[in-house]
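Newbie here. three chains, one complex. Structure please?
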Amino acid sequence: MIFTVDNIASMLLGGMAAGMVLFIVSVGLSVTMGLMGFANLAHGAFAMLGGYIVVLVMRHWGVGFALALAISFVLTAAISMVFERLLYSRLYKAGELDQVLFTIGLCFVFIASLTVFVGPENQPLTLPDALRGQLDLGLLQYRTYSIFLIVVGVAIAIGLWFGFERTRFGAQIRAAVDNRRMAESLGINIDRLFAVTFGFGSGMAALGGGLGAEFLGLDPQYALKYLVFFLIVVSVGGLGSIAGVFWASLIIGVLDFVLKKYLPQGGTLFIYALAILLLLWRPQGLFGKPA
Amino acid sequence: MLKRILAASAALAVSTALAGAQEVKVGVVLPYTGIGAEFAQLIDRGMEMYLKLNADKVKPYQIKLIKRDAKNPGGNDARVATQELLTQEKVDVLAGWVYSPNAIASAPVVNAGKKFAVIMNAGTAHITQMSGYYARTSFSMWHAGYAMGEAAAKQLKAKTAVVGYTDFPPGKDSLNAFKRAFEASGGKVIDEIPMGGAGAVPDFTPFFQRAKDKKPDVFFVFVPAGDHAAAVTRTYGALGMRQAGIRLIGPGDITQDTKLQAMGDAAIGLITMHHYHADLPNAENKRFVAEWKKAYGANAVPDFMAVGGYDGMALIMHVAHQLKGKIDGDAAIKAAGTFKFNSPRGPISIDPDTRDIVMNEYLSEVVKGPDGRLMQKVIGQIDNVKDACKAQKIAPCK
Amino acid sequence: MSVTPHMPDHPAALALARRHSLRWWESLPWIAALAFFFAYPNHLGFGTELLIMVLFAISLDLALGYAGIITLGHAAFFGAGAYTVGILAHHGIWNEPLTGLALAALVAAAVGFLSGLVLLRTTGLTFLMLTLCTMLMLEEAANLGHHWTGGFDGLPSLNIPPLFGVFEFNPLIPKTQFLYVLGVLFLCFLFVRMLAYSPFGQGLTGIRENTLRMHAVGAPVRTRLVVCYTISAAIAGIAGGIWAQANAYVNLGTLGLDRAATVLIILVLGGFGRLYGAFVGAVAYMVLAHFLSKIYPTAWQLGLGLLLVVIALFARGGMLGIGEVLMQRLRPKIPPKEPASRPSP
């Protein structure tokens, strides 16, 4: 029963789809935390903002899902860059606890603002017809949206890997992560690099917020509700490592799926136990460099 | 800051003293922030809607709602709020409670305060037994769960069922209620799946795939209304469980009116048992829904939480009239036992023995209405249902 | 052979010696608490919550402020203490308040010692996430073990007998609870204050400031960290235990991220590593949240969020940090009275 091909395939697909949502939201957090050393607990708030923009733009302007995602990416990136220049940049040299205080405060502000201006209720996202229902893969039928998420997630991972490893901008980021002072003295404009990276990371969070709304829903509590999972993925993957976040998301997504299906009595116990074991085994993360 | 607020509340106390016995102060304990904020808003609006639509019945009393944020299901904020409403605001009546743990945590304070308290949502069956001053105008999980168990076996002719439930007390209540009635009527529950906690919405896919593998006739699901419910229907549709011949059934939480349109066509064919939905065909409900849309916009709909607040207010007014505005806790509980009301959910009353609500349960199916919107069609009705947990003295309802 | 002259009247020696002595303003929090008791008898429920939060924040200050252990899972110990009291009382095993607190401290210390032994090998984000996951795992375990813990509903209506067999715990007018908590807070505070100024406390500060150097001078760094973490856990356990007694119930909220994050915010807001940050932060945060949520039940988080943002942006070291800066500005600049002949090392 367990070891039939379509059962294993469906578990892999379901777990990968869940993992991809984690990956898309968390990858920005990993890069900003790795690059800037900033404990940005407001990352979930930017994902939430992005999700809201997707929903509101689709509802009020009548634009399609894909365009709404693009608009959300750009808007969220722009807004977050304003935040970065005006507020975050003042705290780069502060202790991480001041950063935590600041970003938690920011979360409260986002949560309260959305509650007051949009409402406390969950915002439903209507997917285009093409992404609903089931897709025939030959071997088995599976949820179309899950397969769409896997495709998008893998494409984003490849795109990011290419941008990170093969472009000049990526090389600058890697240089700054490795040795900020040296990068600065080589003439890399760190301020600009930080602002752009931060904007890009928040934009990715916005994409994740929009793409993940089908699974995770969207309401003002989003900012804090899922933060723990994003942080687990980032720390298990290793700070600043795109491959690390990708594989951590996949492992956690798939294992969580299998455990939920066969041991639902365990609740969320296993996912935390798994994170603890992985972190004790490799404290610097799966792909992190040893300190 | 503190001084100014204290001065303000002192001024308030003076003004109430001048207003005399005509004013009834109702302390409201609801989660105005956090994951339950949406529910608080619905109940709030339900209460205010009653005051608006029944101005003639409210006279000569003036209702003053004093709202306090219960914040989260943690219990202690609700408890402190309850205590302060009693000691600082000297309220005549307490009302609210979305989360069961909050009602449980507040019970000793309610007991010590000796004030009438109306539960407007929290559904764990035995809560009303924790304080003799609690009366409930919402529901117990057993109302819908037990009735659904019978209907699934008799009306839907199901032989086997899988139960999926959110793993917290209302979920377990729902599971026990359904299972007892379904198996007593000749059915068999072949699997029970706890589907995560009440906090964050999980990805329901693994749980639903497990249920699909078991191939039951019906899949009974209880999840809290709100985000959970919308995700359930989407997952059910996306996994092709209908095509596999599995019917999704549950209490009305999974077809909450405020979420129904967002579920899309996947919701068509869902069968629920509940005491209220916005499409009930009675005249009282038609007026209620029309006024709701007038007040809160054409797309707004009331739901069972709103009705819990509406009927709760009706109960408070009934008690106020009976006692001529002097709402002593013990007298109020006696007066509540004589409450009979034509609610948007049909005729309701309070059982004087258990202080819990007696109401009709409706078996409904989601269909596409003539205007293309989803609606719920009543396909069965059971009159005057009492909380089966207390009626049959099942632990912990002794 | 030159001998370092013994200089008891040296300004530095005097300053160092004076550092430990009680100052007049240290009596203020206690006077204020007693004044609160008489002035606002209707607010004692809130007052009790506030005092327990101060005690919890002090326990965190010992770990975070003095030893530099940044944890996001401190509610694990609070919850361990609360559930110890709750489970013992609910199942009719033990319910006497004072000994109950001692047991709560013991259980929480055991949890702290075992988790500290394993987790304190790591630092930074990894340690933060490990403490967080451990706490969440305990919370889920408490949720699943509902036969013992009552699960999501918690253990309601605990039977706590009168304090010293005399003073009843009244749920509506919690006078006994307030004074009981105040007394326990006072004793715990004295202990922490003594500890912070002891050689052990100074050693912790050394580890916080420069772990490598402490290793180099041969200090038993990990042992000290684990000991500190265990003591901190025990005090958090007392806070949790007394919370369960004062409220006569326990539920999952005692173990949750909400509580762990709130206590961290309170401590950072007030200023950590200063003993009194816990008082200032708890009063500022809880009074603001309490009254804002009364006036604007739906939007109070906005005000609170803005406060945190502003403090983080414009003050280093929290609200006490602002106080220190102001004091330095106000104080007339006196040139340091150092013997001119002593060259700096």
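Moderator note: Chain B touches chain C through 41 residues (CB under 8 Å). DSSP finds 14 helices and 14 strands in chain B. Thread marked as resolved.
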